[in-house]
Amino acid sequence: EGILTSDGSTAVVTDYSGQPGKTLTVIDVPGMRVVRTIDLGDYRRPHGIVLLPGDSVVVVTSEQSGNLLLVNVRSGSIQKAIPTTQKGSHMVGVTADARHAFTGNIGSNTVSELDLRTGAFVRMWEVPAAPEAINVTPDGAEVWVGSNTTGTIGVLRPATGEIVTAAEGFGWPYRVLFTPDRSTVLLPDLKNETLRFLDRATRRELGRIDFPGGAPQGITITPDGRYALESMSGQGRVAIIDVPARRVVGYLAAGETPDGIA
Prior knowledge:
Blueprint: E1 2-4, E2 10-15, E3 23-28, E4 33-39, E5 46-51, E6 57-62, E7 67-72, E8 77-83, E9 89-94, E10 100-105, E11 110-115, E12 120-126, E13 131-136, E14 143-147, E15 152-157, E16 162-167, E17 177-178, E18 184-189, E19 194-199, E20 205-210, E21 216-221, E22 227-232, E23 237-242, E24 247-253
Antiparallel strand pairs: 1-2, 2-3, 3-4, 5-6, 6-7, 7-8, 9-10, 10-11, 11-12, 13-14, 14-15, 15-16, 17-18, 18-19, 19-20, 21-22, 22-23, 23-24
């Protein structure tokens, strides 16, 4: 996975695979060069990553160790390591105030809540099996989570602990993305090769785009909400999607098997 700073000048990539599988790579985007490699020590298999306000600290999962790390990408230092207390903590969502983080724990079939300011585990909830895709609304009111086993998208309300099904029939609900105005949820389905659009308030499906042979995976959106960019891991390219019109308007060339995108 990867993220960009708000001005687009710096990218941070999680080096999940291979050996040693325990680093972050910091890239000068205009200069097209690596400026720093951050060694995470015993915190192996970094994966899901979110940049906190201020563009200097990232939140990143360490799937193998079961921790969520706060890493200063300018100094290369680990500021906090927060145990999720669960197995397979793969992806993470963070509230807009940078106070709360939620991890999907694939190996434990749970979601963990973590307090980023105190560095403490708060609580966890059982959810449908193999929760990979996860995101939280900016206000923290809803955590949307996908189940790789049941092919469903659930909505968890942390205030009550209630979880309800928002959508069904997925082959692999790969990621969850909210539009900036929080009105629409974009849900790529890797196995069924579709991108589904849901009205967040009513859970009604607004439409879908089919990508035969595309194998859609990672997804991101422009700050104005006009365009979404979807990586086509089966085609080596990125689809440019007009979100209001719900249609593809072009493609960008990419390397083989593109996945994470920012």
